[in-house]
């Protein structure tokens, strides 16, 4: 299993709209496509309270490439993104990292 950590630095005041777009648009499409979110987090204490962090679980890099590419090209997602950004972009910067487990934390 590999994990993808994605961090979105939202435009000022846009974090609620980004969260709504995930709830209303992205998550239903992800369920349909078999994309597995691990969780979503906002910053309680830190340098940017307008940031969203979320993690996805993948079986392999190949699975990630296939499913993420299909999602990004889905006309329903393209329209949802266009509609949500009619007044301008919601996200100033996206960072992502693909992570592999470093330690086995299974009980002995």
From TrEMBL:
Ranges for domain NIPSNAP: 3-102
InterPro entries per the UniProt record, alphabetical: Dimeric_a/b-barrel, NIPSNAP
Family matches, as Pfam families: NIPSNAP
Recorded coiled-coil stretches: none
Protein name in UniProt: NIPSNAP family protein
């Amino acid at each position: 299993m590999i994990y993808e950590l994605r961090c979105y630095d939202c435009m000022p005041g846009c974090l609620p709209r980004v969260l709504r777009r995930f709830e209303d648009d992205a998550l239903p499409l992800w369920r349909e496509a078999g994309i597995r979110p691990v969780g979503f987090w906002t910053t309680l204490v830190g340098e940017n309270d307008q940031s969203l962090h979320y993690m996805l679980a993948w079986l392999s890099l190949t699975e990630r490439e296939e499913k993420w590419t299909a999602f990004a090209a889905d006309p329903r997602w393209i329209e949802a993104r266009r509609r949500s950004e009619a007044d301008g972009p919601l996200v100033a910067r996206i960072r992502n990292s693909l992570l592999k487990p470093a330690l086995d934390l299974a009980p002995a």
